[in-house]
Amino acid sequence: MARLLKGKDVVEALNNKLSKDVEELKSKGITPTLGILRVGERPDDLSYEKGALKRCEQVGVEVKVFALPEDVAEEEFFDTLIKLNNDITIHGILMFRPLPKHIDGEKARKLLNADKDVDGCTDLSLAGVFTNTKLGFAPCTAEAAMEILDYYNVPISGKKVAVIGRSLVIGRPVAMMLMHKNATVTICHTRTVDVPSITKNADIVVVASGQMESVGAEYLSEGQTVIDVGISWNSEKNKLCGDVRFDEVESVVDAITPVPGGVGGVTTSILVKHVVEAAKRFSQSN
């Protein structure tokens, strides 16, 4: 049976540190604050927002929610975003995407202040990931995967890593972050020929295919660590599932993140970590 890399323990460790950081900032008169900009009421947005509110409350971070109607005028949306950019009492902004079709999502992404981009979606944040510098913030899910590997002391330097997926949310940024830790990384995607021949020879496999239970035992081998980033509702099984067929691979690999209970909860804690870090940077520059 594989060792379960549970997110709960990682979250507790993060919360303990963040609580102390928040106390220190408040002693200087700064209350770390997250501004949530949401258009409409998509169920997945509301679910993530609920988790973020809970995690922020646990460590003392304040939250201001700016909920706009689904049919909000584009001008009003951008006025609200600019207001958040300019509000010095708000240190981080979580802008839910995708936005409705009548709002220019690319313009919104570029307008968002990278210093407050705690979800890592701006060009400057992504540049920071690729250059390993403190420009903006890394995408939360990618950093959550790294946080789990670090917490459980999974060796990275000199190891072979296969990443399934090349999105800017997880695949490419996590590959860069792994390379900064001296891993040798191969990114697999829909055009990759014979993916199993690559993944079976890796020490670590990060699965972010976006396809529910698409990776089974034929992709993996003994001794591996698997980070399953996916989360989908399986109506046939009436439960949440990842991109990995967990029941099939648990007896094969050495360690794996469960779904649910793995990367997802840590992702929310990374968001809060970024808000606190943004507040620290603000404190140091003022």
Write up what this structure looks like.
The chain is an alpha/beta fold. The chain folds into two domains: 27-116, Leucine Dehydrogenase, chain A, domain 1 (Rossmann fold), CATH 3.40.50; 140-264, 3-Layer(aba) Sandwich (Rossmann fold), CATH 3.40.50.720. Helices cover 42% and strands 16% of the residues. It contains ten helices and eleven strands. The strands form three sheets. It has a six-stranded parallel β-sheet with strand order 1-11-8-7-5-6. It has a three-stranded parallel β-sheet with strand order 3-2-4, with helices on both faces. Strands 9-10 form a two-stranded antiparallel ribbon. Helix 2 (43-59) links the parallel strand 2 and strand 3 (62-68). Helix 2 packs across helix 10 (263-285), helix 6 packs across helix 7 (171-180) and helix 6 crosses helix 10. The mean pLDDT is 96.
- The amount of helix comes to 40-55%
Report the top-level CATH class of the largest domain: Alpha Beta
Name the CATH superfamily classification of the largest domain: NAD(P)-binding Rossmann-like Domain
In total, the number of domains comes to 2
Count of extended strands: 11
Strand order of the largest sheet: 1-11-8-7-5-6
